[in-house]
Amino acid sequence: MGSSERKEREKAELKEQILHTAKKILLKSGKNGLSIRKIANEIEYSPATIYLYFKDKDEILHELMEMGFMLKNKYMAHAYSEKDPAQRLYEIGKAYVTFGIQNKDWYDIMFNSDEPMQHMAKCREDWDQGMAMFNFLTMTCREAIQKYELSGLDESVMALQLWSSVHGLVNLALTQRLDIVEHTDKQELIEKVLNSMLKCIFKK
Amino acid sequence: MGSSERKEREKAELKEQILHTAKKILLKSGKNGLSIRKIANEIEYSPATIYLYFKDKDEILHELMEMGFMLKNKYMAHAYSEKDPAQRLYEIGKAYVTFGIQNKDWYDIMFNSDEPMQHMAKCREDWDQGMAMFNFLTMTCREAIQKYELSGLDESVMALQLWSSVHGLVNLALTQRLDIVEHTDKQELIEKVLNSMLKCIFKK
DNA sequence: AAACATAATGAACACTGTTCATAATAATCA
DNA sequence: TGATTATTATGAACAGTGTTCATTATGTTT
């Protein structure tokens, strides 16, 4: 009978529900407030049940990481379609920082946590979405180097330099370490630094 | 009698022993492996005793942060005495990254953790050592701007840009996120990016 | 020796991730 | 329909975590 299909569907639905609840708790209580037991409590199942649908907590964090990239892509979409490579780099940087500042919990899971990376190492998976992001960045750098004749710049090094810069800026902001810089408007300060980073590369 | 002095000395000694043990565990098992109960076990006291010497775990992490800055200063000492501001910035950057790469556990506590910052917030303390570091960096930027006539650059923005860049680079390296960049020698890659960051600012 | 102050602790509370034998439910077969 | 099998769920336990507090032990002073 087709009942086996229904069962599979039900199984997938509960898996979805677990992830949906995990996301809800992440947004309400942050990464440290997210626990297997809270998820179980919320969906009214035993904690042990979670382990019938996910190998361990790392796997759940990995799935959340993938959800985070979906959200991040929304922030980046308009930047990706920009034609001029220099302008595109600027828009990518701005979107990246905005996403990070506005979504600490997602950002921590995607770019600061060991757990989802360990899950990938265990399952011999690749960091597809991070890879895609970095490849697109590298490609844009290549275009920019060609168009603006930035001789002596390696595309990989330039991409990594840009990523490091915005990643560092986001992290300093998210961990309250920008507070030591005397400045009235923090948002303005971040924008100034970001502008300086990008300008820096293109001035000859 | 002078016995009260001895008691105070003994109290300070046990406090020292707790911190020394905390450091030992941090180096052996990392930040996640460090627990009050492990410290208590190691010094052969009850976990509750720790709370007679420290308000909570955050305070211990804060003390460890200060110890971390001592270690970091050793890495930076030679850079701080460099005369030429541009060369000094280069040496500071190199020392900072080297320290971070070689001391993940210290780095996490000093620059990535919320806990020691929260402790400072609770006690209305300042982040003195971080402040001192950033002030020196800003001062060096000012000197460099003057000497090399880098017009249009703000010293605070420049300092923050440099800090963000090396901070981001260290964090990407420490969380295994540099693995996605095709490169044989990771150490070499890091040096190339670091060089590019610094060169970037000084080319006109 | 008795009174007092200080220091140390055992036990508890409320959590965490994870495992596994057992129990409940659903699907299939005779 | 009733018995058998496969799936799904769980209670309880293990080994941890930070933290608090009433009680006990220790050392000092009168």
Largest interface (CB within 8 Å) is between: A-B, 43 and 43 residues
The structural domain count of chain A equals: 2
Shape of chain A: globular
CATH architecture name of the largest domain in chain A: Orthogonal Bundle
Characterize the main sheet of chain A: none
Number of contiguous helices of chain A: 10
Could you say what the CATH topology of the largest domain in chain A is called? Tetracycline Repressor, domain 2
CATH-wise, what's the superfamily of the largest domain in chain A?
Answer: Tetracycline Repressor, domain 2
**What is the average per-residue confidence, as pLDDT of chain A, rounded to a whole number?**
94
Low-confidence stretches of chain A: none
Properties at a glance:
Tetracycline Repressor, domain 2, Arc Repressor Mutant, subunit A, 2 domains, mainly alpha, DNA-binding, 204 residues, homodimer
Give an overview of the whole structure.
Two copies of one chain form a homodimer. With 204 residues, chain A is an all-alpha fold. Chain A folds into two domains: 54 residues, Homeodomain-like (Arc Repressor Mutant, subunit A), CATH 1.10.10.60; 146 residues, Tetracycline Repressor, domain 2 (Orthogonal Bundle). Chain A has ten helices and no strands. The mean pLDDT of chain A is 94. The interface between A and B is large, with 43 and 43 residues. The structure holds a DNA duplex (30 and 30 nucleotides).
